[in-house]
Amino acid sequence: MLRSFPRAAPSSTSIRCPSIRTALRSPRTTLPLCTSDAKKQQTRSVAAHAISNPTLSQIEKRWEGMPPQEQADLWMALRDRMKNDWHELTLQERKAAYWIAFGPHGPRALPPPGENWEVFRLVMAGIGVSFVIFCAIRSQARPAPKTMNAQYQEMTNEYLKNQKTEPISGISSEGYVGKGMVQSKPRKGGIPSDDDE
I want to staple 150 with a disulfide (CB 3.0 to 4.6 A). Which of 32, 186, 192, 195 is the partner? Predict the structure, then answer.
């Protein structure tokens, strides 16, 4: 008798849930009929209850100190409440949902007071230490080479002109007015010699 009923079931408009058809075709099934409808009804009944005001009071001050599991449970409860009509939410639930979603906590937390000055102070200390290290190393260095003076570089210009180096646009070209190799200050002791160290 049950085998004849499923043939009529597809043409019937009163059976909308596919789990009823499945249950009728295999009578050994022990699952409840329309489990998806039952789950939806259970979700609606759970979400229909408002979250208590003591749970939501001063959530802005308590949120950071709450354990992560409690934070997740509260957020899931609010999320379930927001799945229904938002007009049914209490004012406390609306404030808590907004603050949890967009409030200044976690990655959106404001920096602690005085953090900018602390960063500035540490950067300046790093620059100061670098300058001291630079000066200490520089004080132990040998003097500048003898070629780093204006007289030697002028002699280099004359040598390059005699050798006709860069005759098209360089130092040996007609009408050249550049400084050539001169880039240092004049030497105090006169023209350098090969004996200078």
Answer: 186
Considering only residues 193 and 147, tell me which one the structure prediction assigns the higher pLDDT. 147
pLDDT band, very low/low/confident/very high, at 115 (cuts 50, 70, 90): very high
Provide the pLDDT for residue 128: 98
Q: What's the Cα-to-Cα distance from 136 to each of 113, 122, 145, rounded to whole Å?
A: 37, 21, 20
